[in-house]
Automatic annotation (TrEMBL):
It comes from hydrothermal vent metagenome. Coiled coil: none annotated. Residues 91-201 form the Rhodanese domain. It holds the Pfam family Rhodanese. This is Rhodanese domain-containing protein.
Length: 201
């Protein structure tokens, strides 16, 4: 009986000591965000639960896996987003991670490391678009947009029930942004949080 007790204790301790990996053989991805090195990892506390903000199941409307007319807009998941962040960290300035939520949501949930906040409201007027598109490396020439050097945008919002990033992608498509340079992270911050990945304010 005592042997079984110690065996159970040993199994319990070993299970708690087991690392929570991003994928097989990968515990962390160190990335450079501004002047800071941040390690993207998963929360190692096996008793950790998703934050209260994302526990409600009632909100929003479920978004399709591919809610866009153009088949060239790609839907991506966590590992692809991490890979894009890693590419940016290694000097690829042709990619931008875009958080399309209001600042109030970011203050509550944090954001994905390296993401910049740009929402649909910043695309309404021509002057606002010029400011946003400058960050996308899109120029205004001869009264039209020049997308020849446009960045690949990885857009996300709260989750697969949130319409903010799909709405922004549709707006960008209307403005003739190259569809093959638009990536939709459907899971958004809820999915990112649900697997315990690193966030920043």
């Amino acid at each position: 009986m005592r042997f079984l007790f110690y065996l159970f204790l040993l199994i319990s301790v070993s299970s708690f000591a087991k690392e929570v990996l991003i994928e097989n053989g990968l515990k962390s991805v160190p990335v450079i965000v501004g002047d800071e090195v941040i390690s993207i990892t998963r929360n190692q506390d096996r008793k950790h639960n998703i934050m209260k903000f994302y526990q409600g199941t009632w909100r929003g409307k479920i978004q399709p896996l591919h809610p866009f007319k153009s088949p060239l807009v790609e839907t991506v998941a966590e590992l692809e987003v991490i890979d894009y962040i890693d590419q940016i960290s290694h000097g690829d300035d042709s990619i931008l991670i875009v958080d399309s939520r209001p600042q109030s949501a970011i203050m509550i949930t944090g954001k994905i490391p390296g993401a910049v906040r740009i929402d649909t409201k910043q695309l309404l007027s021509l002057e606002d678009r010029k400011s946003a598109f400058k960050r996308f490396n899109v120029a205004w020439k001869d009264n039209q947009w020049d997308f020849s050097n446009a960045k690949t945008l990885v857009l996300y919002c709260n989750g697969f029930w949130c319409g903010k990033s799909p709405r922004m992608i549709r707006k960008l498509l209307i403005l003739d942004y190259p569809a093959n340079k638009l990536k939709y992270y459907r899971g958004g911050m809820q999915a990112w949080r649900s697997v315990g990945l690193t966030t920043v304010k």
